[in-house]
Amino acid sequence: RLEGRTLTRHVGSAVGEGNQNEQVIHFGLGEHQGPVTLEIRWPDGKVQEVISQEVDRTITVRPAHAAPAR
C-alpha cells in the first residue's frame, strides 16, 4: 500500500517445461520517500506483511513460516 493506493504484481516460477521466470518484482514508487508496507500472499494462502523503511533498495522476503535459509 502506498499513499492510499494498492500496487500489485504477480510472479510465477514456472511457465513451461525447463523454463523459469526471474523471481524479482519491481515497484516504481516515483518520488515517494517514506516507509512502504508490503503484503505478500504466498501460494499456500498465507499472508505476510513487511514494512520497508527505505526506498530505492532491493529487499529479499522469504516466507515467515518457512525454515531459515542454509
What can you see in these coordinates?
- The model has no long low-confidence stretch (mean pLDDT 77).
- Helix content is 0%, strand content 17%.
- It has strands spanning 36-41, 47-52.
- It has no helices and two strands.
- Strand 1 (36-41) and strand 2 (47-52) form a beta hairpin.
- Strands 1-2 form a two-stranded antiparallel sheet.
- It is globular and about 40 Å long.
- The protein is mainly β.
List keywords for this structure.
70 residues, two-stranded antiparallel sheet, 17% strand
Percent strand equals: 15-25%
Largest sheet: 2 strands, antiparallel
Low-confidence stretches: none
Number of helical elements: 0
From the N-terminal CA to the C-terminal CA, the straight-line distance is 31 Å
* Mean pLDDT over the full residue set: 77
The structure class reads: mainly beta
